[in-house]
């Protein structure tokens, strides 16, 4: 949902937003975006915004993020900031109003 906030705040034109959405998504979200683009074709930003909200702000997705957060224990190998950043992103996904 952070993506939507950063796109909506500057009020840029729809064509600029939709042309760059493919670079905004990573991993599973990128695959989802590609599939949705093939199914629905070209859409304006309000259309994509509603699809993103529908996909990534439902109870199941939030529950998955909560479980991932709870199960991820700090390992010895990676740098501490990587683990903290990953956990911070999960918390923001669960509750966007949370101050971290």
Mean pLDDT figure: 81
The percentage helix is over 70%
Number of strands: 0
Low-confidence stretches: none
For the report, how would you describe the main beta sheet?
Answer: none
The CA-CA distance between the termini, in Å, is 16 Å
**Compute the gyration radius: what is it?**
15 Å
Structural class: mainly alpha
User: How many individual domains?
Assistant: 2
Number of helices: 6
The ordered H/E elements are HHHHHH
What best-fitting shape do the alpha-carbon axes yield? elongated
Short summary of the structure?
This protein has helices at residues 2-8, 14-24, 28-40, 45-56, 59-71, 80-94. It has 100 residues and is mainly α.
Lay out the secondary structure:
Blueprint: H1 2-8, H2 14-24, H3 28-40, H4 45-56, H5 59-71, H6 80-94
């Amino acid at each position: 949902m952070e993506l939507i906030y950063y796109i909506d705040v500057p009020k840029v034109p729809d064509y600029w937003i939709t042309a760059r959405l493919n670079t905004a998504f990573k991993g599973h979200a990128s695959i989802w975006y590609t599939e949705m683009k093939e199914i629905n074709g070209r859409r304006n930003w309000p259309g994509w915004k509603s699809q993103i909200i529908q996909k990534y702000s439902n109870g199941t997705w939030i529950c998955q993020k909560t479980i991932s957060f709870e199960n991820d224990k700090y390992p010895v190998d990676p740098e501490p900031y990587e683990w903290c950043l990953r956990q911070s992103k999960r918390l923001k996904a669960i509750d966007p109003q949370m101050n971290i």
